[in-house]
Structure formats: structure tokens, C-alpha cells
Backbone:
């Protein structure tokens, strides 16, 4: 696991976007795995700039997002489809038909999502954030390392943390559809970003902790091509 320590989230976004842009140039038909949340927003802003100012070409790429809230329509302002359109897809020359996000509504056969990823040739580069409790995607502590895409229960701490985006507590989804840990580990390369002191404990378990399902992120120690970009605050327990 390569660890890159940066000053803050802004710099993390620049470093991550530079890596992603490099990979797109090397392989214009790359399959990217994408994350939502606060952390990757600066990465997406930098990618938008690279497209608009430097003609970085997204026209032939395919993307698969990690997760979606159960019950939210793509048009809901808190859905992850809406987030991706607002923060990235609406501002770059991507073919939206080639952007995939698990459906939060049609929950018949969530594992079909893994088949779609496989049919696209697998994920070349997976971007990840990190939950305070060590979740990746919405794979909460206790999730099997063998998990594939599934409907999952969100931990109470995740529900509380997400409540900042909803006007009432009752509206905050308690379940999501998420790629599993095995789905994520199948990616050929992984790029995880974590910034802020509230991520320091999870970063410790990600880099130095025992590999245990109690800290889902710890499975990434077993991945042969993972880079993590963390700021000084998130790195504070690594010394
Ligand atoms: C988002 C996702 C989550 C977030 C994590 C961190 O698609 O799968 O694992 O990456 O909850 O969220 P932020 O970046 O808001 O701290």
C-alpha cells in the first residue's frame, strides 16, 4: 500500500485527479469506480477543470459508482445519481449511458451489478472514501470480506452522519445498495482518499491494524495495487 501524505483535502483532490487523469490518458476506455460523499468533491472539481481547460477526454470511459440509498429516485436531491450529475457528469464530456449507479428502487437482483462490471471488463481504477467507522462503500463493520453487491443496513453512526444532508431525521435512509468488499477488491487498482482528524482512527486500521471484518477498510492491506491519499490530520495516528 502506497501512502501519500498531503496538506489538506484540496491538495488530496489535486493529487487524486492527477493520478486519474494519467490513467485516462493511458487508457481512454478506462473503467472507473467512483465514490460520493464530501471527500472526493475536490477531486471531481479538479477533473472538471482538466476536461474544460486541458481537454481531458472522458467520452469513451465507463463508470460504476459504489452505492446508492435504498428508496431514493435518481431525481432525489440526495440520491447519489443526482450527486454525480451535479458534481461531475454534467460538466464533462462523458456519455451518461456509460455511467452506472446501483438502483435504489429496483432491488430484485443487486448482484447483477457485479455481472455488469465484469461484462465491462472489470474496474481498472476504483476511487474510495473512508467512513469514520472504517466502512468502504457502505460495507459497515461486520460485513463479510466475501460480500458482493447487496442491500445493506447502514450503521447508526453512518445514519447520524448522513442526517446533515436531509431536512428531517425521518427522511434519512437506513439502508443502501452497495458494492461488496469482494466487488471492490476485484478492482485492478484502488485509490482511497481520507482527510480530517475524524478519519484518523479508521486510517490507522486501514494501514496498520489487524485485518478484521470489524474494520472493513483493513481488507485493502491484501490488495496489491492500492494508494491512499491522506492529509496530516487523518495520518496523525500512524507515527
Ligand atoms: C460514498 C461511500 C462512503 C463514503 C464515506 C465517507 O460513495 O461509499 O463510503 O466514502 O462514508 O464519506 P465522506 O467523504 O462524506 O466523509
Residues:
Amino acid at each position: 500500500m502506497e501512502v501519500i501524505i498531503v496538506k489538506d483535502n484540496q491538495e488530496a483532490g489535486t493529487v487524486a485527479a492527477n493520478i486519474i487523469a494519467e490513467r485516462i490518458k493511458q487508457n481512454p476506455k478506462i473503467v472507473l469506480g467512483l465514490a460520493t460523499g464530501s471527500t472526493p468533491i475536490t477531486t471531481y472539481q479538479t477533473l472538471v477543470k482538466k476536461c474544460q481547460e486541458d481537454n481531458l477526454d472522458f467520452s469513451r470511459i465507463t463508470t460504476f459508482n459504489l452505492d446508492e440509498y435504498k428508496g431514493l429516485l435518481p431525481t432525489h436531491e440526495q440520491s447519489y445519481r443526482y450527486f454525480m450529475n451535479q458534481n461531475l457528469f454534467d460538466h464533462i464530456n462523458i456519455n451518461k449511458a456509460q455511467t452506472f449507479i446501483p438502483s435504489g428502487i429496483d432491488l430484485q437482483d443487486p448482484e447483477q451489478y457485479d455481472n455488469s462490471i465484469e461484462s465491462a471488463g472489470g474496474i481498472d481504477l476504483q476511487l474510495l472514501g473512508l467512513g469514520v467507522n472504517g466502512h468502504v462503500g457502505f460495507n459497515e463493520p461486520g460485513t463479510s470480506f466475501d460480500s458482493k453487491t447487496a442491500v445493506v443496513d447502514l450503521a447508526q453512526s453512518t445514519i447520524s452522519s448522513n442526517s446533515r444532508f436531509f431536512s428531517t431525521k425521518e427522511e434519512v435512509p437506513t439502508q443502501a445498495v452497495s458494492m461488496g468488499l469482494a466487488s471492490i477488491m476485484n478492482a485492478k487498482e484502488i485509490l482511497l482518499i481520507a482527510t480530517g482528524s475524524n478519519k484518523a482512527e479508521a486510517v490507522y486500521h486501514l494501514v496498520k491494524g489487524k485485518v478484521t471484518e470489524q474494520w472493513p477498510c483493513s481488507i485493502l492491506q491484501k490488495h496489491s495495487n492500492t494508494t491512499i491519499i491522506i492529509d496530516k490530520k487523518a495520518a496523525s495516528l500512524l507515527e
The first strand starts at residue 2 and ends at 6.
